[in-house]
Amino acid sequence: MSAENFRLTTLDNGLIVATDAMATVETTSVGVWVNAGTRHETAEINGISHMLEHMAFKGTRRRSAQSIAEEIEAVGGHLNAYTSREQTAYYAKVLKEDRALALDIIADILQHSTLDAGELAREQAVVVQEISQAIDTPDDIIFDHFQATAYPDQAVGRPVLGTADLVRGFTRETLAHYMSAHYGPRRMVLTAAGNLDHDALVDEARALFTALPADRPPPHDPARYAGGDYREERDLEQVHLVLGFEGVPYDDPDFYAASVLSTLLGGGMSSRLFQEVREKRGLVYGIYSFLTSFNDGGLFSIYAGTGEDEAAEVLPVVCDEVMKVTQSVTADEVQRARAQLKASILMALESSGSRCEQLARQMLAFGRPLTTAEVVGHIEAVDEAAVLKVARRLFTGKSAPTFAAIGPLGGVEDYARLTARLG
Question: Which of 91, 132, 264, 380 gives 20 to 30 Å between its CA and that of 256?
């Protein structure tokens, strides 16, 4: 993406409309990203952002739930949504001539959802099943336990889905109040990418987004990393382990170096962890590292799934690799990690959906779009010294590590021994 592809307009109500033009494609992706997620919830309504995302598709004053599905699929389009700890997104991908319909549906569900009591009861049952499914999937639920251990007793540490008891207790009034408090125009960004006309989109948005609630200050506490230990003994075939450290926010000067570090350490088949733990020792089927960033914090995490007999050996080897990367890295592996990151960014440019989401995330995180040249430039600037610097910052700092494990844990060493290995 280059600067000339981007256009930004702020409507009178404060809603930002941002576009990324792609003249050579036949599709347009459009969506609204709301700066409201799990971390904006109190403990009593944990999971309400996700519940509201579900309910948005269950009917408006003009459309039934079935009509919403039929209208978008009648033009071959796709309509979807997701909730994260910081945002809720509603988006569609359609052929370029059907963009106005997609935007009309999104505007409708965000402003005129009826939140029907009967639909709510049915969807509560669906979400409770979703929660049960997550609990029954150890390589899924382990990350919720890991997050809660890293950020205990605070919203950013709570599960996106909430709990079954809380979800069953949500009322139409609770949902409506939360929507009114968090879905103001200055807490949203409308983005679109693909074959589109920016001015026409702005005119449509100006006519459609006329019933958004008044903006209120975004209430949430700062993320306070703590670290710690969580273990759950289960009768499983595998042990699921996540080891993590305090990471960096999006705007941290070390963000790109941390991204290169994550790729180098556990981002692919050539990474250190994959080669040492899986290829050379055969201790795991899956192992990888990943960087999670928030507006005011983040996590650097390593996941491994291993057998009960191998569990005792996996953690010491992982810790050894973590410590080794604070001592030396080679020019070749840094270059390889940079190439992987650049390729993933450039390949995503071929999809209007990826570009639409990327633009939204940049607007919410930085308040402006970042050109491809700018992002690639940041990645290219990461050298061996930068990777060593951020590795030492993350892995040998003052913060305690976070560890979570589910499965047959008899062979997994205790937290004190683990922290000693990382000292």
Answer: 91
